[in-house]
Amino acid sequence: MSTYVIGDVQGCYKELKKLVKKINFNPSEDRLVFAGDLVNRGPGSKEVLDFCIKHSKSVDAVLGNHDLYLLSLIQSNQKKAKTLTPILTSKNPSKYFKWLIRKPLVLKIKKNDEIFWISHAGIPYFWSFEKALELNKELSKNLRENPSFVLSNMWGDRPIKWNEKLTNEKRFRFIINCFTRMRYLDTKGNLNLKVKDAKLTKGLVPWFVKSNELIKNPNEYIIFGHWAALNGKTKIANIIGLDTGCVWGGKLTAVRLEDKKIFSVKRL
Ligand SMILES: [Mn+2]
User: Fold this and answer.
1) SS3 helix, strand, coil % of the chain, rounded to 5?
2) DSSP conformation letters of 229-242
3) Is this prediction's pTM over 0.90?
4) Please, which residues have CB within 8 angstroms of residue 172's CB and are 6 or more apart in sequence?
5) DSSP 98-119
6) In what order do the strands lie in the sheet with 220-224?
7) Of 25, 65, 152, 179, which has the maximum CB count within 10 A?
8) CA atoms of 15 and 234, how far apart (whole Å)
9) Contact indicator for 117, 5 with CB cutoff of 8 Å
10) What is d(CA 138, CA 143) in angstroms, rounded to the nearest whole number?
11) CA of 183 to the centre of ligand 1 (A)
12) How many CB atoms lie within 10 A of CB 111?
């Protein structure tokens, strides 16, 4: 009985199948948790979601920016969007919508005496883990109860700084941007969503460097995807990056929570 967290699949279904075979995934015993961005760009987004829905009892996921993009397309009844077209023109796009819309932005997994916090982009230092969970709950509730409002107002880089007084679309957008798009923060805690590379940029700090402060206990971990340019490297033992750029010709990577063993398959 093992739990695996899998990095950004982005429609790389062949690689997912190979990875699942490599780890000997047994749906009646094991659990797969996707770190977001299941779909888009790769050729098999529909097959990836069909796999997840088929095994939904043993599959969980947090939402990534590309998953939210798919939700917004289904919500607005669009039928054409490059690699997402097969989902949009399928017999029942609402099947995919219903499965994805119930997924959180942050997942807390307890295993023996360890705690794993999973979010697609990460968890910023200015929220405690409990606060992140609370904001996730608030956002998920609004996403389920008023999907068109949340999904049609989520695009944009502003606001750039957290303030408890933020309300409605500004609040939702900031929460979504932190959990699904964040890479760098400046020294004042402002989100910078423009810079994507892994080189050191003056005045900017990768979010996880500061979020190391949140980890008060050696048995606590943050696991994230989203940032392919890092190739999984954070140089912080308890913060594990899983986006190894499969869709860009890199690898699809999973970590087994019980022993932190990494499993990868190359892009086919
Ligand atoms: Mn992403």
Assistant:
1) 35, 20, 45
2) GGTT--S-TTEEE-
3) yes
4) 139, 142, 150, 153, 154
5) HHHHT--SEEEEEETTEEEEEE
6) 106-111, 114-119, 220-224, 239-241
7) 179
8) 24
9) no
10) 9
11) 10
12) 13
Q: Which CATH class is domain 3-266?
A: alpha beta
Kind and range of the H or E element at 134?
Answer: helix 129-145
- Ligand 1 centre from 42 Cα, in Å? 13
| Residue of 181, 168, 158 lying closest to 67 (CA atoms) | 181
Cα of 245 vs centre of ligand 1, distance in Å, is: 11
Under DSSP, the state recorded for 56 is G
Residue 36 is classified by DSSP as S
Question: How far apart (Å, rounded) are the C-alpha atoms in residues 54 and 13?
Answer: 14
How many angstroms does the Cα of residue 130 sit away from the middle of ligand 1?
Answer: 23
94 in helix, strand or coil? helix
**Centroid of ligand 1 to alpha carbon of 207 (angstroms):** 15
Assign 57 to helix, strand or coil.
Answer: helix
Would you say 115 and 221 are in contact if contact means Cβ atoms under 8 Å apart?
Answer: yes
Q: Which burial class, exposed, middle or buried, applies to 14 when counting CB atoms under 10 A from its CB (0-12, 13-18, 19+)?
A: middle
pLDDT in 10s for each residue of the chain, 268 residues: 999 999 999 999 999 999 999 999 999 999 999 999 999 999 999 999 999 999 999 999 999 999 999 999 999 999 999 999 999 999 999 999 999 999 999 999 999 999 999 999 999 999 999 999 999 999 999 999 999 999 999 999 999 999 999 999 999 999 999 999 999 999 999 999 999 887 878 899 999 999 999 999 999 999 999 999 999 999 999 999 999 999 999 999 999 999 999 999 999 9
